[in-house]
Design brief:
Largest sheet: 6 strands, mixed
Number of strands: 10
Order of helices and strands: HHHHHHHHEHEHEEEHEHEHEEE
CATH class of the largest domain: Alpha Beta
Radius of gyration: 20 Å
CATH superfamily of the largest domain: ATPase, nucleotide binding domain
CATH architecture of the largest domain: 2-Layer Sandwich
CATH topology of the largest domain: Nucleotidyltransferase, domain 5
Helix content: 25-40%
Strand content: 15-25%
C-alpha cells in the first residue's frame, strides 16, 4: 500500500528501518544491519547511560524509574563539568545515530531499498523530498541536532535537522489545532508509553490562543480494557469546566474509523472483541463520567506531531520516546485552527 502521510500504517514505522550502509555512508561497523529501534529506542539510550552510570552519578532511584531521558537532560545542565561532559558525549553518540538514520532515509540507496522490501517507491520518494527533519520528545535538544547534522553534512544528504518548535508538546499541539474550535476551551492529552501529558487549550476568535500544560502522569502498567478505562478516568478528572471537546493522542496507528489497529502486543491489545469503535466508546464513557457531553477525537501521536508543524512543506518529525515515531505535515493549514498572535505554552512539571 502506498504511503499516505495523512493516514500512516505500521508499515511507515522507522523502528524496523535497517542500518544498511552503502559504501558512501561509511557508518560504524557495529551499526551495520541493526534495526533503528535497537540503536535509538529508549532501551538503547538506557544502555548508553548504564555504561557510564558512575560518571553520570545516576542514583538507584533514577535507574529504577525508567525515566533515563529525564536524568540525561538534567545531567546536561549539571554544575559538575565532568558529569555534563559525559552527558554531552552520550547525546552526541545518540545524535550521530540519528544522523545516519536521516541520511539512509533521504538518500534511499539501493542497499537500503533492498533491505526494506515492505516499502514501495512511494515511501522512498517521499523521504527523498524531505528537506527538514524536526526532532520531538523530551530528549530532543540542540546538541543532539548538531551531532546529527555533523553526519548528514559529511554525507551531503541535503537535509536539515532541528528541534521542533514545541518538542514535548508537539502531538498535543497538532490535536489542539485539529479540533476547530472558535472560542472556548478543550482538553488535549498525549497518552505515551512512559507518561501521559495533558493540557488545557484556550481558543479565541478562531485561533488557538494558549496551551496550559498540566502535570504529567506516569503511565500505568495496564493494557486492554483496563487501560482504556484508566483513560476515561484520567480525561474525566482533567476536562476543564465548560469544555465539550477532548483531543487524545495515543501510541497506536489508527484505521479509517480512528480505531487502534490490531497489534500482537501494546496498550490496546485485547480490546477489539469488546470495543469496535474506541472513539465512540470513549465519548460515551467520558460523557457519563463528567455528567455532560464530551466529544472525543483520537489521533495517532506522531501523526498529530506532524499536524502541529503545518504548514511546513517538505518536512517530517521524528518523535524520540520509548520507540521512534514519525509524522508529516499535511501541507497547507486551511483545515487547521491557526495559532493566534502571541500564542504561548505554559510549561508544567514533567516527570517520567
Amino acid at each position: 500500500m502506498p504511503l499516505d502521510p495523512q493516514r500512516l500504517t505500521p508499515t511507515a514505522s522507522l523502528n524496523r528501518v535497517p542500518f544498511i550502509g552503502a559504501p558512501a555512508i561509511g557508518m560504524p561497523q557495529e551499526y551495520e544491519g541493526r534495526p533503528a529501534f535497537s540503536l535509538l529506542g529508549a532501551a538503547a539510550l538506557g544502555g548508553l547511560l548504564a555504561e557510564r552510570r558512575q560518571e553520570l552519578e545516576l542514583t538507584t532511584e533514577e535507574v529504577a524509574s525508567g525515566g533515563l531521558s529525564f536524568a540525561l537532560r538534567a545531567r546536561l545542565e549539571s554544575f559538575k563539568p565532568a558529569v555534563a561532559a559525559t552527558a554531552s558525549d552520550i547525546v552526541a553518540e545518540y545524535g550521530r545515530r540519528l544522523g545516519y538514520l536521516v541520511a539512509i532515509l533521504k538518500r534511499g540507496d539501493p542497499e537500503s531499498r533492498d533491505a526494506r522490501p515492505e516499502w514501495d517507491e512511494s515511501y522512498w520518494a517521499h523521504w527523498g523530498s524531505v528537506e527538514r527533519v524536526y526532532l520531538g520528545g523530551g530528549l530532543a535538544c540542540p546538541e543532539m541536532c548538531d551531532a546529527a547534522m555533523s553526519v548528514v553534512r559529511v554525507l551531503g544528504s541535503g537535509i536539515e535537522v532541528g528541534v521542533a518548535p514545541y518538542p514535548v508538546y508537539q502531538p498535543m499541539l497538532g490535536a489542539a489545532r485539529s479540533l476547530l474550535i472558535s472560542d472556548g476551551t478543550a482538553l488535549v492529552a498525549d497518552f505515551g508509553q512512559t507518561a501521559t501529558k495533558r493540557a488545557v487549550e484556550t481558543y479565541q476568535e478562531g485561533g488557538l490562543a494558549s496551551m496550559r500544560a498540566l502535570e504529567s502522569i506516569p503511565a500505568p502498567g495496564l493494557s486492554g480494557l483496563d487501560y482504556v478505562r484508566w483513560m476515561v478516568e484520567t480525561v474525566a478528572s482533567s476536562v476543564p469546566a465548560g469544555a465539550a471537546e477532548a483531543g487524545l493522542c495515543v501510541s497506536s496507528y489508527l484505521d479509517e474509523q480512528d480505531h487502534p489497529v490490531r497489534y500482537a502486543a501494546g496498550r490496546f491489545a485485547g480490546i477489539h472483541d469488546d470495543i469496535q469503535d474506541l472513539r465512540g466508546w470513549l465519548t460515551e464513557e467520558i460523557s457519563l463520567a463528567v455528567g455532560r457531553e464530551i466529544h472525543v477525537s483520537l489521533f495517532h501521536d506522531a501523526t498529530a506531531a506532524g499536524i502541529g508543524l503545518s504548514p511546513s512543506p517538505s518536512a517530517a518529525v521524528i518523535m524520540l520516546g520509548t520507540a521512534l515515531g514519525v509524522g508529516f505535515p499535511f501541507g497547507g493549514d486551511g483545515k487547521l485552527t491557526p495559532l493566534a498572535p502571541g500564542f504561548a505554552v505554559t510549561e508544567a512539571k514533567l516527570r517520567p
